[in-house]
Design a protein that fits this description.
Radius of gyration of chain B: 21 Å
Helix content of chain B: over 70%
Helix content of chain A: over 70%
Strand content of chain B: under 5%
Oligomer: heterodimer
Structural class of chain A: mainly alpha
Number of strands of chain B: 2
Radius of gyration of chain A: 21 Å
Number of domains of chain A: 1
Structural class of chain B: mainly alpha
Distance between the termini of chain B: 32 Å
Order of helices and strands of chain B: HHEEHHHHHHHHHHHHHHHHHH
Order of helices and strands of chain A: HHHEEHHHHHHHHHHHHHHHHH
Shape of chain A: globular
Largest sheet of chain A: 2 strands, antiparallel
Number of strands of chain A: 2
Strand order of the largest sheet of chain A: 1-2
Number of helices of chain A: 20
Largest sheet of chain B: 2 strands, antiparallel
Number of helices of chain B: 20
Distance between the termini of chain A: 20 Å
Strand content of chain A: under 5%
Strand order of the largest sheet of chain B: 1-2
Chain lengths: 481, 492
């Protein structure tokens, strides 16, 4: 292991440095800003995130060969690059969606917490050392616990925060136990050395497989895959809606990034075993998520179950254990990020203006705000996997990967549950287009409009022009293998 | 081809739909005019393709191709042959008729016509596809328009149920096929979704026998195969008139066409293996559909089940895997599309004026709306397979083909046609003749000029094809499409 420091390493973590700086700037501005000026912090944050994204795209591009930097703490490769951009997009959209008088007094803190969490995610995607990985996960999670309970006067929000914290702490402890076993058996914390040592050291597959299960608990929680999903509906329901959107997208994407990296890097010896386990998790998630969503009358709970099901579809790609499958999961994630953020953005608007998250609050939305109605249509159908929206291609890729890997049962289960999924997405759609009693248009803010526009443009772009993102997904998958 | 005529046919309605959605909701007349213009232009283009298609040359013509996702071998690949050219024409005809028939839709016409246009684009996209990815892309494009059109403008009592049932069945069918198609893609190992490449992939016999059922079964659900047919009557009856026309007339043909194009042509050994099953199910479709139609009291359900019955003939034609059967199936797809569109159009006209579809409460409407009645009778004669109408030139070859394969099927299917004659005559007699109930006598008026144009046009076309199958280019055209299929399946 090369432990020497080179200045070029700083360039590789320039985006992360930028994020840390941005968080500090926001906190400072928050002290200066008064009253309504705080709303402007959202634009500052989004602008800052954009600058970071440009820096990431220009300076932090991976070389042809993946590089380990800072003594093997981080790995500069395509997964880190792609996921960083995904997180930045998710954070920027969340911050812009979140701007509202409801949290305006503490809007600065909101933005800063989102940025810090994004910093953690970005490190998660590039961490190549168990200690670094754990620290990154906690850097991500702590701000999220606070954000989930952000509305301290709202009991449900506080409950969501506590629940999320308790579940998170517990699964994190199990995962940490798995990490400690890995270190104990191999004597190294570097992900890419563990596999070699496990092989030469003749570590029994039983131990490796058991460790893989322990680690999967932690990651399964992050991506809200069944059976680690119980927190999701309650937390999504109670947390402020933009936070729920962020949890269900960027945070889930971060979970996937580490899940795939650790499985691929540390456990190649027991690949057929974890492939089966992940396949089962995928199947259970698709079934539980879709069927329980049918019974929901609260849109946030419905989207929570839907997001469990979506995690299942992404896991189908992972279970295939192929570059094609991993690329499919990445494409799916990118598509899901813009889609679900759009959906949660609209739920935020309706919940705020109509004062309810019940499905009935959506009657007549298509007439009150035709554009918002169309955006919700796009988001729901994209979740359902209908072209020309992004979800279609994502589903095609992951099911294709399952078929290619010979896991026909997974593909069949996947398509059957997507029929169930379509049922409740269409039900919501019907409610939106039913005539309602109130015909007044809901007021939308400029930042909300921009954020929604970005999401819908993303849904349409990823749903019709597949090649650029697919190419990036392939490179990303290549970095894992 | 330098001029992208097929792309225009596909994207013109799509563009029109988007333009319509961008208009303010109050400009109802502008919406209608844009929709009609786009539909008519589309029809003109389809007629141009129909006339310009060179039968002597055969094969795929007006081909356009460019890469969509090169890494995966997905391309935008459009082209038509002897089977799909008539279907493109039929689709354009039905869309145009649908727009005309919906002229008086007053409830949110903007969304209505926009969705109708999307639906039109979707079916044309499938008919013109030479790439499997494109087939699914365009087919599923129609999911939300058809769902919302039925759920929002449909028959209030059953629209919730009918719309969801229809949409989920169709989605189920397409995704089941999708799994099979993915299996074909990987088994072929050509890194290509291009159907012409996959035709030469040389799938093993065992592979074909396993996956044919999945691929064909999925698409056949869209074509209304027994026992997965029940979405069709429920969905069609719940739908507003134009959507019933389009769904029964065109969308079911999309399923049948895809079953032929993808399952039978790409997996011919599988087709041979499973042909007896399809023959049997198709026969059940014909007889069962007709018998159920016979006992319906709802005017629209009669037609809904008649579609199930007639699609059975298409399936029988496919399953014969011989020249006569396939030719007849090709004719039947066109003929039934036009016929059932006319049926549903007239049913809609009657319902709009009498406000009931209960056959017992109708009667003597011939005097009130003679043109519509004559149109319905002509469609009825087509559906009975009377010589001189397009139904005859379609059904007769199917029976010939079935006789060559399995005489019993031909005999049973012909009996089914007798039942067809029964329910058609019964309905015609009860709805259009006899004494008119006094209540209807006062309220019911004649149909509008727009309606008459639709009825007259569609009826004339069916007679034209029935009397001059060769002269109207229909038979030679379809024959030119059937010959390559026979080369693939190895039939006579």
């Amino acid at each position: 292991m090369d432990l020497t420091f080179q200045p070029s390493m700083l360039l590789a973590i320039l985006p992360e440095l930028g994020l840390a700086g941005l968080a500090a700037i926001i906190l400072a501005l928050d002290l200066i800003a008064k009253g309504n000026q705080k709303i402007l912090l959202g634009w500052v944050t989004a602008g800052g995130l954009l600058v970071v994204a440009v820096m990431a795209a220009l300076f932090a591009r991976p070389a042809e060969q993946p590089q380990l930097i800072f003594g093997g703490m981080l790995r500069v490769d395509w997964p880190a690059f792609t996921f960083r951009l995904i997180f930045l997009l998710g954070a920027a959209v969340t911050v812009l969606l979140g701007a509202s008088e409801h949290i305006s007094k503490r809007y600065g803190e909101f933005c800063a917490l989102v940025v810090v969490s994004t910093l953690g995610m970005s490190l998660m995607a590039s961490a190549s050392n168990l200690i670094m990985l754990y620290l990154a996960i906690e850097t991500t999670s702590l701000p999220l616990y606070i954000l989930a309970g952000f509305r301290v006067l709202d009991q449900k929000s506080v409950e969501a925060g506590i629940k999320y914290l308790l579940y998170g702490a517990m699964t994190s402890a199990v995962m940490l136990y798995g990490f400690s076993l890995l270190w104990g058996f191999t004597g190294t914390t570097n992900l890419y050395e563990i596999a070699d040592l496990a092989k030469t050291g003749g570590l029994s597959p039983l131990v490796l497989g058991g460790t893989a299960m322990l680690v999967l608990v932690g990651f399964g929680f992050k991506i809200s895959a069944a059976p680690f999903h119980f927190w999701a509906p309650d937390v999504y329901e109670g947390a402020p809606t933009p936070v729920a959107g962020f949890l269900s997208t960027a945070s889930k994407a971060a979970g996937f990034a580490v899940l795939v990296r650790v499985l691929m890097a540390v456990f190649p010896e027991v690949a057929s075993f974890w492939s089966l386990v992940v396949g089962i998790l995928a199947a259970v998630s698709m079934v539980i998520g879709n069927f329980l969503a049918l019974a929901q009358r609260n849109i946030k709970r419905l989207l929570a179950y839907s997001s469990i099901a979506q995690a299942g579809y992404m896991l189908v790609g992972v279970a295939a254990h192929s570059a094609f499958g991993a690329a499919g999961a990445v494409y799916y994630l990118a598509s899901y990020l813009v889609t679900n953020l759009a959906a949660f953005g609209i739920v935020w608007l309706v919940g705020r203006e109509v004062g309810s998250d019940d499905l009935d609050a959506y009657t007549g939305l298509g007439r009150r705000n035709p554009t918002v109605g169309l955006a919700m249509l796009a988001a729901l159908l994209s979740l359902g996997g209908i072209p020309p929206l992004s979800g279609f291609f994502g589903k095609l890729l992951v099911f294709g990967a399952a078929v290619q890997a010979g896991q026909i049962w997974l593909a069949v289960l996947g398509v059957l549950t997507s029929v169930v999924g379509l049922y409740y997405y269409l039900t919501v759609l019907k409610i939106i287009y039913r005539p309602g009693t109130d015909e007044h248009a809901l007021p939308v803010s400029a930042s909300w409009r921009v954020a929604l526009l970005v999401c819908v443009a993303g849904i349409l772009f990823l749903g019709t022009v597949f090649a650029p993102m697919y190419g990036l997904s392939l490179s990303t998958a290549g970095g894992w293998f | 081809m330098s001029f992208p005529i097929l792309s225009l046919i596909i994207f013109l309605p799509l563009a029109a739909g988007l333009v319509i959605l961008a208009l303010p909701a109050e400009r109802k007349q502008a919406v209608r005019i844009i929709a009609l213009t786009a539909a008519v232009l589309d029809l003109v283009l389809a007629v141009v393709v129909f006339i310009a298609y060179d039968v002597a040359q055969g094969g795929y013509q007006f081909v356009e191709r460019f890469w969509w996702v090169k890494q995966l071998g997905i391309s935008y690949y459009a082209g038509v042959n002897g089977i799909s050219t008539p279907l493109v024409l039929m689709g354009a005809l039905v869309v145009t008729s649908g727009v005309m028939i919906s002229w008086r839709v007053e409830e949110r016409p903007r969304e209505f016509f926009a969705y109708l246009m999307f639906l039109g684009a979707s079916v044309q996209g499938v008919f013109c596809s030479l790439d499997l990815f494109m087939v699914f892309f365009f087919f599923e494009l129609a999911v939300f328009p058809k769902y919302l059109m039925i759920a929002l403008w449909g028959y209030p009592k059953t629209r919730d149920y009918g719309s969801m049932k229809l949409t989920l069945y169709l989605f189920l069918g397409s995704v089941v096929s999708l799994v099979g198609v993915l299996a074909m893609y990987f088994a072929a190992g050509q890194n290509s979704f291009d159907m012409l490449t996959l035709e030469k992939a040389g799938f093993s016999r065992a592979f074909q026998q396993t996956w044919f059922l999945v691929v064909f079964g999925g698409f056949a659900i869209l074509g209304g195969i027994f026992p997965f047919h029940s979405w069709a009557p429920d969905g069609h009856v719940a739908a507003p008139t134009a959507v019933s026309m389009l769904l029964a007339g065109v969308e079911m043909k999309v399923g049948a066409f895809a079953a032929l194009r993808v399952a039978i042509m790409l997996l011919p050994d599988g087709a041979h293996f499973w042909a007896p099953l399809i023959l049997a199910l198709g026969t059940v479709n014909v007889v069962y559909g007709a018998l159920i139609a016979l006992i319906q009291t709802d005017f629209k359900y009669v037609i809904g089940f008649s579609s199930v019955s007639h699609m059975g003939l298409v399936l029988i034609g496919f399953a014969t895997l011989n020249n006569e059967g396939l030719l007849g199936a090709g004719m039947q797809m066109f003929s039934h599309g036009i016929m059932t569109a006319l049926f549903f159009a007239v049913v809609g006209m009657v319902y709009d004026r009498a406000h009931t579809r209960n056959i017992g409460e109708l009667g003597g409407l011939f005097r009130k709306m003679p043109v519509a009645a004559v149109g319905f009778i002509i469609a009825g004669l087509v559906s009975m397979g009377m010589p001189g109408f397009s139904g005859f030139v379609a059904e007769f070859p199917i029976f010939m083909g079935a006789w060559k394969t399995l005489p019993l099927v031909a005999i049973i299917a012909v009996l089914g046609v007798i039942v067809t004659a029964g329910y058609i005559l019964l309905v015609v007699g009860r709805v259009f003749f006899g004494t008119i109930p006094p209540k209807l006598d006062e309220t019911v008026g004649d149909v509008s000029l727009m309606d008459k144009l639709v009825v007259g046009g569609l009826a004339a076309l069916m007679i034209l094809i029935g009397v001059f199958p060769t002269l109207s280019k229909m038979a030679p055209l379809i024959q030119s499409g059937v010959t390559p299929i026979l080369a693939l399946v190895g039939g006579a």
